[in-house]
Amino acid sequence: MIKNSLTCLSGALNYAVQPCKYIKYNPCDYVKIPKIPVDKNAQTKTDYILSLDEWETILARFAGTHFYLPLMSGFYAGLRLGESYGIDLLEDVDFENSTLSVNHQMQMQNKNWVLCNPKFDSFRTIKIGPELLNALKKEVTSRKKNMLKYGPYYLKTYLADDGTITQARADIIVPYKEIWPAAVKESGELTTTDTFKYCVRVIHDSLNNPLFHHHCLRHTHGTILAENGAWPRTVMERLGHKDIKTTLERYVFNTEKLQSDAVDIFEKAVR
Prior knowledge:
Layout: H1 2-17, H2 40-46, H3 52-62, H4 68-77, H5 81-85, E1 93-94, E2 99-102, E3 105-109, E4 112-116, E5 124-127, H6 130-150, E6 155-159, E7 165-169, E8 177-179, H7 196-205, H8 214-227, H9 232-239, H10 244-251, H11 256-270
Antiparallel strand pairs: 1-2, 2-5, 3-4, 6-7, 6-8
Family: Belongs to the 'phage' integrase family.
InterPro entries: DNA_brk_join_enz, Integrase-like_cat_sf, Integrase_catalytic, Integrase_recombinase_N, Tyrosine_recombinase_XerCD
Domain Tyr recombinase: 45-264
C-alpha cells in the first residue's frame, strides 16, 4: 500500500513538473521507503496451509449448513471469499461439463450488497471435480425442496440492473433477474461474506484452529496443485491471478514436500 501510494504521488508530481511546469523537480525522487519489520505471527497466519485432517474436521463440523459451499468452493476451486458468495447456481454451474464459471464477487457498496466483477476482472471458467460438483447438485436439490416447504414465504433473491442484490417473498412479483446464491439459509434468507465471520470464530474457538481464514483454503488449493505437478500457468489461470509472479510468490509455498521433491529430482538427475 505504501509503495502504491508513493507511485501515485510521484506520478502526479512528475506531471506537475512536466508538462505543467508548476514545480521544478519531483520531491518524491528522493524518497526511500524504510524497511518494515515482519510480524512473525502475522506472517504465519498469512502463509497458513490446511492439513487434510484439519480440512476433514472443518468439513464435518459445517456439513449441512449454509457455510458448506463457501468452504467447498474455496478448497476445491481456489475461489476467493467474495467469489464463493458470488456463485449463481442457475447460471454459473455447468453440471453436464463439470465446470464452474466465476463471473461475480459479492461486496458491500454504499451499504448495499452487490454482485460486481471478480478481482482484477478475473472472469474464468474452471473444471471442477466430483466432490464439489456433487455438493452443488445437492444444494440445488435441497433448494427446490425448501421452496416447496416454505411456499409463498420462501425468500427469493434478485439482481437489479446496477448489481444490487434484493430479496422478496415468493408470492411477490419483482421486476429483476432471479438468482440462486450458493449460500442461503433454509428459508432462502441471504447470507454474505460478513456472515462467514461466525464460521471463522467457530473454527478458531471450538475447533482450536486460530490460524484459519477463508483465504487459506485458496492457499491450500494452489499449493496442493503445485506439490502434485500442476503447470504454474494452469494454477495461475485457475486462481484468477493477473500474472504468474503472484502465483509463485504468494500461493505456491515452498512446502516440505516440494523441498523433498527437489532433492529427489536432483539426485535422479546426477545418477
